[in-house]
Design a protein that fits this description.
By secondary structure, the protein is mostly helical. 64% of the residues lie in helices and 6% in strands. It has seven helices and two strands; from the N terminus they run αααααββαα. A two-stranded antiparallel ribbon has the order 1-2. It is globular, with a radius of gyration of 16 Å. The chain starts with a helix and ends with a helix.
């Protein structure tokens, strides 16, 4: 799949789920539930920090540090993602097809060494965030709120 299209889907789904949280009520953002992270806020903080790490790896940083973002409110989280995604989008637009396929060495947070292409790294970013968007939906359902469809097919339908 075209990396730019994949990233556009990722941006859309990330903002949609945060809008759902905001529409549900700010109190649900910090409410404790049962999941990998105890709240939506902590889930979002994890996702944004991990995305920034992958972005740094795509830029050739072998062992990037986890960066903490101000996500105290849903609005701050939405803005942090918008800024990070704008930076990523500019970078991605500068890459050639060959650059997307270039393999880069990096270390995970445990120090294990890996080598993957930027395209594989982007897929990992999108897949990781999809997993956690599902967890956010699960938390909202625990709180008696409904989820929304975030599958790629809905992105296509909305953006034709």
């Amino acid at each position: 799949m075209n990396p730019e299209k994949l990233f556009a889907y990722h941006q859309w789904a990330s903002q949609k789920v945060l809008q759902l949280v905001e529409d549900s009520g700010e109190e649900y953002y910090t409410k404790t539930g049962q999941n990998s992270f105890p709240s939506i806020r902590e889930t979002v903080a994890h996702v944004i920090g991990v995305e920034k790490m992958w972005f740094k790896r795509m830029n050739g940083v072998k062992s990037p540090e986890f960066e903490h973002f101000d996500v105290d409110t849903v609005e701050k989280a939405k803005n942090a993602l918008l800024l990070l995604h704008a930076e990523m989008e500019l970078y991605f637009a500068s890459l050639s097809e060959e650059s997307w396929q270039e393999e880069l060495d990096y270390r995970n947070m445990k120090g294990d060494e890996f080598r993957h292409s930027r395209e594989e790294m982007l897929f990992t970013v999108v897949n990781h965030a999809s997993y956690h968007r599902g967890q956010i939906t699960s938390l909202l359902r625990q709180f008696g709120k409904a989820g929304i469809p975030l599958d790629y097919i809905y992105f296509q339908k909305e953006n034709r």
